[in-house]
Specification:
6-stranded antiparallel β-sheet, 19 strands, alpha+beta
Length: about 450
């Protein structure tokens, strides 16, 4: 089976593409869901199915619509169509566009036999290679108001029905969205849904206060840009503390005590500590003499404690797991962004631009390259989407973070596709954040939230 598909196209604010089987003429209309994956929205039968009267359920212009396509359409366009209402709307507003795409694909990639069969069956826009007449003009029984005009490409159709209302930042230049407290929401309507989302705020870097021997807290200023995104798949956190295994055998203990007593009590302290060690050895003469003899002989022979271990004994290492320090948490988020309208296209472009801009290092000033200044830091919060500022108590909290890495893939499906205006059909965004300071017990204040 050989297939060909159109480039991505926005139809009523939804990213779509048409695919045909170049051998049978069967066609599929795909739409991009909210996660950016293309799903089957409607299907059209093959030439053989259209020729078989017992199988044909609709004329060559019609498509069989999928229920989930209607649900996605209602969400994007803020409508509430029933199945019959959506079928009527599809016939009146959408069918001509997808039939035109299907016909063009068949004309460009189908063989002459397939084009002849489909044009005789009345397939819109499919040109008969023998007569040069389009299929929709061959079937005189079809109503003229649905005849596909080969001179009307449909690509210049006004997108007045594309839903852009209520999208923060829609139609606003990127320069107005960055550096001036702009707010970006993806996907459209997220702020109207009752769900949890990730709020990302870009804030100018400020150092922590230092006084005497103490390092204080960091004062966070006002957010210069705010981004709202759905909670990413696989949202998780990992808290860690560094410990390491340490040994301290009796000889090392003795030497340490000698040094400490010498520091604290001078020569007299060293003498007293040494006498205590001697008394302890004399209390178990046989054990200590044999062990010390083995250690000294091993050191002289250059074989370490091997002579002692060959006797079946070792110095007690007093092994213990000891605290070494806190760890800084890292967070990785992956998003597939699939703009479904011109408003969402501008929003996605601004989101990528905003993240790139605020994670970039700043120069010391105009004409001054002696010093570099820290990039912006980011405040992350899981919030309720409708309010935009009510933290969710069941997901982890974040300390201020640095955006340490950002990768953007403009062709995540391995095939670069764009809409008519050049917007990629899909973006893959991978963000790596790292907290600036560790988590301390004192950060878990009273409350019913899950904490950091």
């Amino acid at each position: 089976m050989a297939t060909k598909s159109t480039k991505g196209k926005l139809i009523e604010g939804i990213a779509t593409k048409v695919e045909i089987d170049t051998e049978t003429g069967a066609a599929t209309l795909y739409y991009a869901d909210r996660k950016g994956n293309f799903q089957v929205g409607a299907t059209s039968p093959s030439a053989a199915q259209l020729s078989d009267k017992s199988l044909t359920r609709f004329n060559p212009k019609d498509w069989e619509l999928k229920r989930r396509f209607r649900r996605e359409f209602n969400i994007v366009t803020d409508r509430s169509f029933t199945s019959s209402q959506f079928e009527d709307f599809f016939k009146q507003q959408i069918r001509k566009d997808v039939n035109r795409d299907r016909g063009d694909l068949i004309n460009d990639h189908g063989n002459n036999a397939l084009k002849t069969d489909l044009s005789k069956l009345g397939m819109p826009r499919v040109r008969n290679p023998e007569t040069g007449i389009d299929g929709d003009k061959t079937r005189k029984t079809e109503s003229t108001d649905e005849t596909e005009d080969s001179n009307n490409s449909g690509d210049n159709r006004e997108r007045s029905n594309i839903s852009e209302s209520g999208v923060p930042g829609a139609g606003v230049d990127i320069e107005q969205l960055t550096g001036n407290g702009g707010t970006l929401v993806y996907p459209a309507g997220l702020d109207k849904d009752s769900q949890v989302c990730l709020k990302i705020e870009a804030i100018a870097y400020s150092p922590r206060e230092m006084k005497g021997t103490q390092v204080g807290d960091r004062s966070l200023g006002k957010a210069e840009a705010t981004i709202f995104l759905p909670v990413p798949e696989g949202a998780s956190d990992r808290n860690g503390v560094r410990f390491s295994r340490e040994n301290l055998n009796p000889l090392e203990v003795a030497l340490a005590n000698l040094a400490m007593d010498g520091i604290e009590a001078g020569a007299e302290g060293v003498g007293a500590a040494a006498q205590n060690i001697v008394d302890e050895i004399q209390g178990d003469t046989a054990t200590y003499k044999g062990a010390i003899a083995g250690i000294l002989a091993g050191q002289a022979a250059g074989v370490g404690n091997q002579l002692l271990t060959r006797q079946g004994r070792i110095l007690n290492p007093n092994t213990e797991l000891l605290f070494q320090g806190p760890e800084l948490r890292q967070f990785s988020f992956r998003y597939l962004l699939s703009p479904r309208s011109s408003g969402e296209s501008k929003t996605v472009r601004a989101i990528v631009r905003t993240l790139k801009q605020f994670m970039a290092v700043k120069k010391g000033g105009e004409g001054n390259s002696l010093f570099l200044q820290s990039p912006h830091i980011f405040r992350l919060t899981y919030v309720e989407s409708q309010s935009g500022d009510t933290p969710n108590d069941f997901l982890n909290m974040f300390k201020p973070c640095a955006l340490t890495a950002l990768s953007t893939n403009y062709a995540p499906n391995q095939t670069f596709m764009t809409f008519e205006d050049g917007t990629p059909v899909q973006y893959e965004l991978n963000m790596s954040f790292q907290e600036l300071v560790p988590i301390y017990q004192g950060d878990y204040t009273s409350g019913n939230n899950i904490g950091f």
